[in-house]
Amino acid sequence: MVTSSLQSSLKYAYFPGCVAQGACRELYQSTGAIAEALGIELLELKKASCCGSGTFKEDSQLLEDTVNARNIALAEELNLPLLTHCSTCQGVIGHVDERLKHAQEENREYLQQVNGLLKQEGCSPYQGSTAVKHLLWVLVSDYGLDAIQKRVSRSLKGLKCAAFYGCYLLRGQEMAWENPHNPQSMENLFEAVGASPVYYRGRTQCCGWPISSYATTESFKMAGGHLQEAIASGADCLVTPCPLCHLNLDSRQPEVARVVEQPLGLPVLHLPQLVGLALGLSPQELGLERHVVSTEPVLEKLGLMNNEQLTINN
Fold it and tell me: What is the reported pTM?
């Protein structure tokens, strides 16, 4: 397990992203809850803009780079690393950060063009002085698995969790944080908080969200296949570090079930919700009542539904 001596002084410029402040408000809620419980300070970037989810570059690479250079520059103003809890945001902003850092060495004219556009809008220039980090990486590497294990106050023993990493977290950047074909960070985190990891083929594949607007049936077949594999492998729940994956796998699961013509009903948790349960936080504090697919089977497995104060109504 990875350990860290920095837990008491962890501070980040927090980029919550769009989906966590809208359709997946429970992700925003649970991230704040576990950060407070672990003593991690988050300074929210209120002036940040949408990363574009990879769509800006379809019109203009310069547009994507400039918008996200501004987001990174906001973190640089605070002299802090940028933290996101969305694997799509991580992939997009992290890749822009890589590209612009390369430009500092190999294509300074392009970087000057980006910073020139930022200057026109009264924004600070991109300097390449910070890092872009997903919450998963912060928990595993900065806080440390041993330290998290010591903070566990509620047993998750017997809960079988299947990871769903999402594309951008594994393959969105040139320098992969871990093996994109056989990642282990989420499974290691599951074990650290007392849950049992479930392995299945689809855990590193696409959820289908990117094509859902124009190839809905194909998208839902992709999502349905992953859910069916996880269920067949014995999973009690799916856990994802990406709110866009959560939308396709949880919010649209009833529609997905109709497309694959099979009952599903597999709860899909956001990563900080699982961690929060292990830290002893209540289902209400973690927003577990907001899911489309009921999370009650997970709570029943953990013995929480017998406690009237912790009962939720999905």
Answer: 0.93
